[in-house]
Amino acid sequence: MDSGLYVVATPIGNLGDITQRALDVLRSVDLVAAEDTRHSARLLQAYDIDTPLTAYHEHSDSGALERLAQRLSEGASIALVSDAGTPLISDPGYRLVRRAQEQGIVVIPVPGPCAAVAALSAAGLPTDRFRFEGFLPAKQGARCNRLRELSRESATLVFYEAPHRVQDCLADMADVFGEAREASLLREITKAFETVRRGTLASLVQFVAADDNQRRGEIVLVVAGLREQQSVIDSETSDLLQRLVAEMPAKRAAALVAQWKGIRKKLLYEHLLALKHDT
Length: 279
Ligand code: SAM
What we know:
Elements (H helix, E strand, L loop, with lengths): L3 E5 L11 H9 L2 E4 L2 H10 L6 E3 L6 H12 L3 E5 L12 H9 L4 E4 L4 H9 L6 E6 L4 H11 L5 E6 L4 H12 L4 E6 L7 E6 H10 L8 E5 L11 H11 L4 H12 L3 H14 L1
Helix pairs in contact: 3-4, 6-7, 7-8, 9-10, 10-11
Bound molecules: S-adenosylmethionine (SAM).
S-adenosylmethionine (SAM) binds next to helix 5, strand 7, strand 8 and strand 10.
């Protein structure tokens, strides 16, 4: 095996989802650096691989990084794996990859499963442009601020979410992006209780509220980006705008509804002008 740092993707549930090349690399390298050695030991055992394992995670003391950097500079071949999927994708490894490159060590990707890409492949939402957002902040205020920053994004959005937060998170998305925005919930991908559910954000809020099982396991949320055709103003939004405009200036009413529904303020304002013109 040529020396270097091999960044190896591993299964996200189904053990069969590992490439032949990943197995060859894991078998042939001098050392496997793993986020959790006990977890990765089970994977290696399943494939009769007895390469030595060492712990490496983002909170490792700088000693762990230095030891790996030293081995690499001595010509070792090291495979980096995380607990599941592709290392560095909401997983440890960035500091080690940077360090290796700074030392002139070759870094070799060994691609394979990634929950975000698997989710996109089955979400039924546009994939020509997407934006990976990883985990949203756990606290509601910070989460809503982040969502507001994303509400005008036209690319499809991909989020990782913890099961105990999925209901609150979907409710916040419905508040900020508008209840009618389309989204998909993908749970336990490649595992026994795999679920793929596409609908409006309002319908997904109801779906997870009605079934405890939908708040268990591992979850990816894929949310359609803001599209001009989604911005077509429905009758409920139009009614709301007209009620608000009776109480405040049109620009203010448009701004409030824009924030609430995730529709461009300019479109709402133009809608109000058109209504005024009609009467
Ligand atoms: N590096 C991994 C990858 O390539 O997808 C992601 C690691 S991140 C710490 C773990 C998160 O990924 C989970 O909380 C969940 O949001 C998502 N995830 C991982 N496996 C999944 C699966 N089988 N089904 C759905 N989501 C999954």
